[in-house]
Write a structure and sequence with these properties.
This protein is α+β, with helices and mostly antiparallel strands. Helix content is about 30%, strand content about 25%. Among the domains are: about 110 residues, D-Maltodextrin-Binding Protein, domain 2, CATH 3.40.190; about 180 residues, Dipeptide-binding Protein, domain 3, CATH 3.10.105.10. The chain has 13 helices and 23 strands. The strands form 7 sheets. Strands 13, 14, 15, 16, 17, 18 and 19 form a 7-stranded mixed beta sheet that branches. A 4-stranded mixed beta sheet has the order 1-12-11-10, with no helix packed on it. A hairpin with a 2-residue loop joins strand 2 and strand 3. Helix 7 packs antiparallel against helix 10.
Amino acid sequence: MGRRFVTSAVLLCAALSACARTRPHYGGTVRIETQGDAWQPDGIARRLVLDTLTTAGDAGVQPALAVRWESQDADHRWEFWIRPGVHFQNGEALTSDAVAAALDAACAHEGAGCPWSAVHGAGPSVVFTSDAPAPDLPELLAQTQFAIAQQDASGAVIGTGPFRVTGYANGALTLTANDDCWSGRPFVDEVDVATRRTIRDQWLDLSVGRADIVEVPPELLRQAEQQHLNVLVSRPVDLLALTIAPNGSFASREMRQAAALAVDRTALYNVIFEKQGEVTASLLPQELSGYAFLFPVDRDLDRARALRGGASVPTVTLSAEDTGATMQLAAERLALNLHEAGFNVQVAPPGSRQTAVLALRKVHLEATTPQAALDEMLARFGQNGTVTGTDAASLWQTERGVLDQEAIVPLLWLPRAWAAGERVRDLRLAADGEPLLADASLEGAK
């Protein structure tokens, strides 16, 4: 009996010790390092400081700054009721007029692709009207480009989110916990984001404890696993695509089709991106749409040459929007593919601002349902109109109509990944691959 009691006591102490180690603690500073600008639309900082009217994930569209919504006039008019009692980080109350003004400002940015014609405050609610039906507006409003923001007299961004901006200098961004956040105070006191850090420097800092969360590009996932990093990987959320301006040498659809047939997606997948993600010729990932396999991905060099014909083609420039080394390698591989089909292509140097007929782009996807995702991707590529069909056949027809113009050539769908240090607890990724830091904590924080 005594031995059993001692054994039980030891097990209980071990269990209590384990609970103490895993129970979230308040306090501490999370140190994050990134290559790019943390304030870009899909950067890590925006969703920490700003909130959207809704959120979208595996559970569907959920309330955020809006508590409920309803559509009228066959989805031409939507009304969203604003959550009461919410304040901006400077103490000002969140009103429907403030929300409408923030959304108007978001739509003023070039390429915003706002899926409504007008928005205005009406008492406790915000009303959207559109010329075409917008059945997926609640999910579209979850995109970070439609986050609700204000600016103070100094131009600093103010939101309603779990963190507020308290410092920015020399590429270092400091975010401090918002004690009065409507969704609850985050566990950590601060988030320090060091930007413009190379992957090599990020991984070195993680290994010696100078960083807690760092990026893992898809082409380095195998290497991260070999180094036994604690890696979180998202679903495919970044579309690598070649865009072709329909002018000059590529004014005709046949020439654009020739270029599309010349690209070797399999080589990009195997050689450049180390077999991560999925080869695609679709604007949506296969697991989301269910029909991506219907778009052929195979290279047909003979047909590309036949479509191009024997005419000489002036030299055209191919640029990579992302200046990273991997994107530059991918651009050079595509230039080689096009040269084999008879096109004269030169790759613009990294950071070049010259206008290019061909552009290699990486486009981020936030939506989690097929209709909203196709709407989002068409807007990202500057295509007007809203997707009205809800079934897979209608969406496929819409996407095929866009891709048949051969101005957008989808290549690969890639995941996002992050590595976390040993002291980080309860870190998860959002549906679009961004870290959810509001619920994360640090072991040993006080």
